[in-house]
């Protein structure tokens, strides 16, 4: 076999491999190639696989407080950095920036405490804390008791209506 024949053969092999690769890629993307029958269905691969979260999502009020706190704290840090740089540069803006940084620090501390308090209140109201003195547990107990009483009253009413229909002499 000569060099020209080898190149021609390897060209055919490369073309066959290229066609096979294109068919495989098309199949992976869910596209039909010319060689596949129209009846064959493709399994679409998902773009990502959902994994269960290791931790539960924060409740809405707590998340809102946390986002607010992060924004306030970031602005406070930026203000402190600007105040420091203005002080190094000897700018007239240094003194007002230092004062505003002090005020922002107080506000940022309040925001961080707000997240903690909001979380504690949410836990107490919604029963995440499993202490016997939890307010949420007694509230749930009361709600359950009220729901059972309402269901019992409804069953009694239905029973009375059924008994009333049995005692009728004729049907309207």
Low-confidence stretches: none
The ordered H/E elements are: HHHH
Gap between N and C termini:
104 Å
The largest β sheet comes out as: none
Q: What spatial form do the alpha-carbon principal axes imply?
A: elongated
Structural class: mainly alpha
Query: DSSP strand (E) fraction?
Result: under 5%
The averaged pLDDT comes out at 78
* Number of strand segments: 0
Which value, in Å, is the CA radius of gyration? 36 Å
Write a compact overview of the structure shown.
The chain has 172 residues and is mostly helical.
Description:
This protein is mainly alpha-helical. 71% of the residues lie in helices and 0% in strands. It has four helices and no strands. The chain has helices at residues 3-29, 60-89, 94-126, 135-166. The longest helix has 33 residues, at 94-126. The radius of gyration is 36 Å and the shape is elongated.
What tags apply to this protein structure?
172 residues, elongated
SSE blueprint and pairings:
Blueprint: H1 3-29, H2 60-89, H3 94-126, H4 135-166
